[in-house]
Amino acid sequence: MSTKNKVAIFSVLAVLTLAVISGTSIIVVGSVSARNSTEQQSSEAGSTSSTAAGKVSIIEEASEMGDQAYDPNSVKVKSGDTVTWTNDDSQIHTVTSGTDSSDPNTGKEFDSSMLSQNQTFSHKFTTAGEFPYFCQLHPTMVGKVIVVS
User: Fold this and answer.
1) Are residues 2 and 70 in the same domain?
2) I need a labelling partner for 47 at 20 to 30 A (CA). Which of 38, 66, 70, 124 fits?
3) Do 52 and 76 fall into the same domain?
């Protein structure tokens, strides 16, 4: 079970517990999404995921997730492919190349600037290699794009 799913379950349980303690009647309505088992296992194991479209999500509560803030992390694409990041969190984030703000190459390969909720940023990778990135506002949020020939 992914951290995101555990957090969601815990949140629902916390609300239900508070309702029982306070004697309040509540109705909980939610939605559940499922991924195929291969995709789920690779993201939970933190392994590299190869996506045809090169899509990466900045997950909810990302600022507290460290290297699990980007899903998938790492993403593997071919040279010439474009990776698109979507901010699925309510907080503002960035997608900035480099290892951290002290890296002399920070932002030289790509930099999204500020991304609000549901905004996207895309970058076309034209050379093979490993491209680390992070959020300038939440530097523990780190990810990597692996580009193969």
Assistant:
1) no
2) 124
3) yes
Report how far residue 80's alpha carbon sits from residue 82's, in angstroms, rounded to the nearest whole number.
7
pLDDT at 45: 35
Q: Are 58 and 120 in contact (CB under 8 A)?
A: no
Say what the pLDDT of residue 139 is.
Answer: 97
The count of C-alpha atoms lying within 13 angstroms of the C-alpha of 131, restricted to the half-sphere facing its C-beta, is 26
CB–CB of 4/43 below 8 Å?
no
Q: Which H/E stretch holds residue 44?
A: helix 37-44
Q: Which residues of the chain have pLDDT under 50?
A: 2-52
- Which residue has tokens 């490993």? 130
Q: Is residue 41 part of a domain?
A: no
Report d(CA 6, CA 13) in Å as an integer: 11
Query: How much is the pLDDT for 122?
Result: 98
What residues make up the domain containing 85? 48-148
Considering its fold, how many domains does the chain have in total?
2
Q: Does 138 map to a domain?
A: yes
84 residue type, one letter: T
